[in-house]
Amino acid sequence: MSHPHDRTPWEFLDDRAQLASAPERPRRVVTYVQAGAALWDHGIRPAGVFGSPHDDETQADPAKTGRLPMGDVPYLGAGAGLDVGTLLAAEPDLLVAVTYGGSAVYAIAPEAAKHLEEHVPVVALSVAADRGLAGIRERFAELAHALGAPARSESAHELDEAESLFRATAASAADIRITAVSSAGPDQVYVARPHTWSDLTALRALGATLPEPPDGPGINWHTATWDEVVSWQPDIVLTDARAHAGPTDPALAGRTRLLPWNPELPPSPDAHARFLTGLAEALRDAARSRK
């Protein structure tokens, strides 16, 4: 996945409105794991990836890595196990991170991020819900193209097909209710508020039924008991597959279809097509079982 090296000056305006610049196109790119999985789908191999404070310090969360070949891509740590020295030791000429809006770089402490930017250009792209799933995906495509990735028309075609399939399936399964959750243990579960998640908002836009949980103090999540979730009688439950999430309640598992859900889905056409295709199949099966 190598590309011709462009020796002209390189610039990219990130989603903090900060201009990253380098004397030539970066070749050694260190990334947050979600960003690295997206860039890999576009044909860019990261020189290393790092995780978030939720992640293990020594091993990447397989739910987040997408199709990254982690046997060949160094994992540089996460949380307390991630420091500026480790990142700079990978000799990056660009660091790619994500942000959830504003100027904060996710997964790197503010002082560490400031220190990093004194040594290496940093691009932070927003994965906040207000950008929209397509908007997030397009920004990563722009960055990949700026890093030398070729346009991949086959990926765009597969995504178009997946969206069409999902839209048609959702139209015939409008009474199938989808709920997304992240387990906090045997007595508590976080229920996603769909309007605050870009992928869940996109599902709604394509015709899926994702009811809002009750109002409450949580911005992104409603805190509930498993019995409460069971009482809603969802047809499909998307369960947080990240390593830090707890197990799903057995009572729920016996009553509904469970699908693994990655709230940090790689923002690439390939990953989004896989997500939509898998959920379309679950919708179809749930609708058939109703008959």
UniProtKB/TrEMBL annotation:
<keyword id="KW-0813">Transport</keyword>
<feature type="region of interest" description="Disordered">
    <location>
        <begin position="48"/>
        <end position="68"/>
    </location>
</feature>
<dbReference type="Pfam" id="PF01497">
    <property type="entry name" value="Peripla_BP_2"/>
</dbReference>
<feature type="region of interest" description="Disordered">
    <location>
        <begin position="245"/>
        <end position="264"/>
    </location>
</feature>
<feature type="domain" description="Fe/B12 periplasmic-binding">
    <location>
        <begin position="56"/>
        <end position="242"/>
    </location>
</feature>
<protein>
    <recommendedName>
        <fullName>Fe/B12 periplasmic-binding domain-containing protein</fullName>
    </recommendedName>
</protein>
<comment type="similarity">
    <text>Belongs to the bacterial solute-binding protein 8 family.</text>
</comment>
<dbReference type="InterPro" id="IPR002491">
    <property type="entry name" value="ABC_transptr_periplasmic_BD"/>
</dbReference>
<keyword id="KW-0732">Signal</keyword>
<dbReference type="InterPro" id="IPR051313">
    <property type="entry name" value="Bact_iron-sidero_bind"/>
</dbReference>
